[in-house]
Q: What sequence folds into this?
């Protein structure tokens, strides 16, 4: 049985082992465990019961990650998406006055559209239309983005009224603990310790406990609370909304955030084929779309792939076993959710910062001396962290790439889908400017 599983997941082809994959799955889980509490904290502002959303978050992250690992064989973990949950809460429910049950109905409809687009091959064609020259820029931009998040989370960088950002308070114990974590992980990586990131997170957490910097208040939690949101969606109500506007937002952000994350993680794990295609792409998109449908039925916003999966890849994860382990840990989190919430930002921030640094390794392959490649790549690279949006950074890069291809007479060398994609991105910016 074990040999068959190793053959199915391609352990020999990816030069990996069970130990490496399990450690990578644990690393990914620890890096994204914050979602167990952050997602419910946002969605409960719509009136959704906190305990129910917490259970739904764990269940959907478990389902999506396990499905991705088992079906598509990729080390890509899924969970309710940040940004999409904020749009669900603050724009759709609080801003438009839409009941959360109806908003869940809109998420369900967007998930069905995801499935139809996947089965029709449209999502796959959209990804194929993205110039492979931008792949390294997307990965690098996401690396800067998650490193920036890590720096903010641990207080090494703080907002400033005069310079936008400035150095944080280095006397703060949480910041000092994060610096300790960064140094520890860096040293372990220098010695090529495969579990460097996970060891660094746990060691920083342990030191934080000894220094009384970890606040943990035991609380009761019943996984069966999910009954308060499960199957409460109102699909008929969603059909009577300005449904195109809401579903387009869910569809667009998830589609291109997912593509950006997929390209970045696949590039970091060396899973992109020599012809610049991503194997089993239809299975990846099917897992993503199905997870969104299940998420709406359980009671949470759109489910998408997480860039924190790069932490597991950095720890050596190369197959779907990594994602399955992450999913199983989210399933376990259903019963120990309060304990998961005890992992503070200063313990996970070092992992995000150093994983971000590692994701910059590919930008050396960008042809910086060729303007029609360098300029779109730079715009992608810089816009992702500065706008806090993978989709926006990708938009900048594709619009610039398409415009330069047209202006320099290279239009015939590119598939028409590239220009359609650029036009869609332009429409998106026009739409954003009027809301």
A:
């Amino acid at each position: 049985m074990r040999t068959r599983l190793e053959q199915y997941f391609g352990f020999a082809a990816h030069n990996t082992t069970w130990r490496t994959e399990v450690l990578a799955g644990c690393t990914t889980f620890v890096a994204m465990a914050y979602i167990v509490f952050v997602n419910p904290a946002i969605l409960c502002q719509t009136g959704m019961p906190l305990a129910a959303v917490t259970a739904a978050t764990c269940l959907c992250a478990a389902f999506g990650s396990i499905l991705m690992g088992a079906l598509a064989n990729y080390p890509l973990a899924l969970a309710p998406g940040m940004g999409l949950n904020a749009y669900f809460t603050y724009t759709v429910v609080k801003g438009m006055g839409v009941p959360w049950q109806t908003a869940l109905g809109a998420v369900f409809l967007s998930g069905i559209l995801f499935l139809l687009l996947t089965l029709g091959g449209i999502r796959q064609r959209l990804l194929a239309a993205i110039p492979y020259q931008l792949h390294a820029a997307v990965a690098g931009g996401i690396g800067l983005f998650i490193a920036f998040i890590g720096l903010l989370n641990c207080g090494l960088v703080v907002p400033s009224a005069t310079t936008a950002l400035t150095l944080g308070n280095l006397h703060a114990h949480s910041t000092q603990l994060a610096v300790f974590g960064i140094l520890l992980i860096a040293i372990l990586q220098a010695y090529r310790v495969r579990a460097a990131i996970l060891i660094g997170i746990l060691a920083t957490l342990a030191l934080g406990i000894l220094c009384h910097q970890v606040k943990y208040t035991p609380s009761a939690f019943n996984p069966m609370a999910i009954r308060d949101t499960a199957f409460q969606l109102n699909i008929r109500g969603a059909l009577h909304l300005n449904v195109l506007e809401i579903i387009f937002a869910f569809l667009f952000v998830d589609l291109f955030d997912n593509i950006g994350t997929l390209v970045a993680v696949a590039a970091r794990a060396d899973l992109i084929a020599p012809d610049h295609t991503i194997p089993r792409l239809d299975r990846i998109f099917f897992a993503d779309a199905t997870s969104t449908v299940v998420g709406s039925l359980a009671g949470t916003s759109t489910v998408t792939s997480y860039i924190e999966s790069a932490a597991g890849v950095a720890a050596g994860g190369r197959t779907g076993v990594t994602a399955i382990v992450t999913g199983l840990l989210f399933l376990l989190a259903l019963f120990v959710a309060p304990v998961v919430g005890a992992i503070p930002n200063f313990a996970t921030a070092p992992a995000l910062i150093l994983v971000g640094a590692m994701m910059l390794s590919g930008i050396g392959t960008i042809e910086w001396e060729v303007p029609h490649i360098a300029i779109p790549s730079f715009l992608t690279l810089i816009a992702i962290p500065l706008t806090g949006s993978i989709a926006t950074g990708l938009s900048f890069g594709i619009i610039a790439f398409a415009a330069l291809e047209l202006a320099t007479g290279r239009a015939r060398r590119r598939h028409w889908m590239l220009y359609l994609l650029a036009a869609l991105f332009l429409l998106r910016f026009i739409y954003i400017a009027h809301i």
Q: What stands out?
A: The CA atoms of residues 207 and 375 lie 44 Å apart.
